[in-house]
Design brief:
- By secondary structure, this protein is mainly alpha-helical.
- Helices cover about 80% and strands about 0% of the residues.
- The chain has nine helices and no strands.
- It is globular.
Length: about 210
């Protein structure tokens, strides 16, 4: 069932994203600039390092714009290919590497949305053609929409503090340390809230699958 897979993907992304340890913002920014300089010289290991640090946020941004995990993952891949090609163009004086990468991901996601509009116009022009494949696409979109509604409903059942932590991790791609800084809660408290919230979401999604 696609909806169940979508929910599982969300949980997996959240668990991976909020479990990442992050150094302090200024230390990470300086290190990222050095890594990007190495990438510009052809260092593939540096690109892997940047991916591990920033792919989670890029994915969150793409998901928020596209509402499709498959497309969002493709956008992330395209974005880091662009980072590889354009690393030498990065200008530290104009912002951190993380912001630069996030901006690339946002631009690629918006490009996808625009491309959808072109595809929709083409589909409208071919409305009289056999619709078997088109029907499958529509069904997939309906199932994804239904899964998103179940996720929203499950989030609504969480206590406010847990829901806020999860939403900051998912929709803004923040790390646990960044969530603590944003909310003013101790880092240990944020970790506890997220762990409990993920457990509750997993239970809700599991019960929903058993009832289908």
């Amino acid at each position: 069932m696609l909806g169940a897979g979508y929910e599982a993907g969300v949980l997996t992304f959240l668990a991976v994203r909020v479990g990442q340890a992050a150094p302090g913002p200024s230390a990470e920014a300086g290190e990222d600039a050095r890594v990007l300089a190495a990438v510009a010289r052809g260092d593939r290991g540096g690109l892997r390092t940047l991916y591990e640090r920033h792919a989670g946020r890029a994915l969150a941004i793409a998901l928020r714009i596209l509402h499709s995990r498959a497309e969002a993952e493709e956008v992330v891949q395209d974005s880091f290919l662009e980072v590889w090609r354009r690393a030498a163009q990065y200008d530290e004086s104009r912002g951190s590497a993380g912001v630069w990468i996030s901006t690339i991901a946002r631009s690629r996601a918006i490009d996808r949305v625009r491309a959808r509009g072109t595809a929709e116009r083409a589909a409208s022009a071919a409305a009289d053609e056999p619709r078997g494949a088109a029907d499958e696409v529509v069904l997939e979109e309906v199932e994804q929409r239904s899964a998103r509604q179940r996720i929203a409903a499950a989030l609504g059942e969480l206590p406010a503090e847990q829901r806020t932590a999860i939403e900051l991790a998912y929709f803004e791609g923040l790390s646990q340390r960044e969530i603590a800084a944003r909310t003013g809660a101790p880092l240990g408290t944020v970790k506890s809230r997220i762990r409990i919230a993920l457990g509750r979401l997993a239970s809700v999604f599991g019960a929903a699958r058993e009832g289908t």
